[in-house]
Amino acid sequence: MESKQVALEIRSAIKKGNTEKVVELIGSNAGSLNTMTPFGTWLHVAASKGELDIVKKLLELGLYINMLGGVYGGGALNEAASAGYIDVVRYLLAYGAELDVSEPERNPLFGAISNGHVEIANLLIESGIDTDIKYSGESKKNMDALTFAKEQGQEEIMKLLEDKKGFSTTTTAKDNSKDHQDKILEHLVKHIGNIKNTISETVPGSRVSVNIHIIPPSINKEFITLVTTGMSDEPMIFTEKENELKYAELLLKLPSSWKVEEDNLNDQNNGWPFRWLRKVAHIPHIYDGWLEEGVILPNGEPPQPFASDTKLSSILVCRPQETELENLNTKQGKVHFYSLVPIYDEERSVALEKGHGYLLEKMREKGISDILDISRVNVGI
User: What is the pLDDT of residues 148-207, one digit of tens each?
Assistant: First the structure.
C-alpha cells in the first residue's frame, strides 16, 4: 500500500476512534508513526478529535509529545485545548507536554479562551502557564491572556485570570501538599491511566485527609484501579533504619465489572474495598503506626468476611505488579506504593507461618493476580 493511502487510512481510523486499526497501520514503521500531515502529526489529529486512547497509544509507540505542526504550528496540547477535550489536555500535561507560549497561535490558553473552554483554561492556569506574557502584532497590541479574554467576552475566564493576579506568592504548607499530591497524580495518570472520579473524606483523629481516585480500565489494563493520595502528606512514625520508607500511598485493583458509582458504595458488597482502602491509609496517622510490605490486617479477630458474597476476610499489604509505581521521588521525599490484596483466613495462617512471600508465590502458581476476585481459589486449604 502506498504511503499516501496508508496516511489516509490512519487519519480515517483516528477520526473513527479505532485504536486497534491505528496501531495495525502504523505497526513498527517509524516513518508512518512520524508522518507530518497538513493537520500536524497523528498526535495532533488524535488530540483535536478527543481520542484519548489513541493519544496514549501514540505516545507509547514513541511519537514525540511536543512536535510542532498543524494549522497553528503548535503542539498537540494546543489542539486539544482549542477543541475542548479536557481529558486529553490533562493527560498530555501529566505526560510532560510543554506549555508553549512562544506565539499566541501556539498558546493553549489562548486556544481555550477563544473557544470558551472554561475548565480547560482553569486547568492550564493551575498548571502554571504564563498568563502575563504579552503579544503584539497586526491584531494584538500588548495583549496578555486577560486582555484577550475581555476582547472575546469570556467573563468566566476573565474572573479566573483576575483571581490569579490576586494570588499571594507566599508558599504555604497547603500549597506544598497540593504540589506533592499533583506530582503523584501525574505519575498515576502517566503509568496507569486517566482519573475518572475522586472521593474525598476527612477522618477525625487522623493527621491527613485521604482522597481515593478511580482509574477506569484501559487497553493495557483490564481492571479498575483505586489509588490514594493524601496518605503521604505526613510521614509514618519511623526509626532511622526505616527512614526511606516513611511515605506511602495505597492502591487496590477491582475487576472491570465492579460498580464504582457513588450511589452503589453504600451497599456493603460494593463499598467495602473503598472503606478498607481508606481505613488502611489512615491507620499509621491515627495510631502512630507503621505500614510496610507483608503487614496483614484482619477484619476482626477471628477475621470475618468483608461482605455477604465473599469469604475473603483479611488484607495483605504487598508491592504492586506495576514496578514503576514502587516509588516516586517528590520534594517531600520518596513515596512508596503498596497494593492491598484481600486474602482468606487460611491464607493468613499460611503467611503468618511461612511468610507473605511464600503465600504470594502459591497464589502466582494458581494464576491469582492482585486484582480482587471475591470467589477465587483459596490456596490456604
Answer: 999 899 999 999 998 877 643 344 445 556 678 888 888 888 888 888 888 887 666 677
- Taking alpha carbons only, the member of 80, 98, 99, 97 closest to residue 89 is 80
Q: What is the pLDDT of residues 130-139, one digit of tens each?
A: 998 988 766 5
Q: Which residue stretches of the chain are H helix?
A: 3-15, 19-26, 30-33, 42-49, 52-61, 76-83, 86-95, 108-114, 118-126, 145-152, 155-165, 173-191, 268-286, 345-354, 356-365
Site of grid cell 484482619: 298
- Assigned C-alpha cell, 142: 500588548
Q: How far apart are CA 114 and CA 109, in angstroms?
A: 9
What pTM value is reported for the model?
0.56
Helices (H) and strands (E) in the chain, counts: 15, 8
Distance of CA 65 to the CA centre of its chain: 18
**Which pLDDT does position 168 carry in this prediction?**
39
β-strand pairing of 314-318 with 209-215? unpaired
Cell numbers representing residue 143 in the block: 495583549
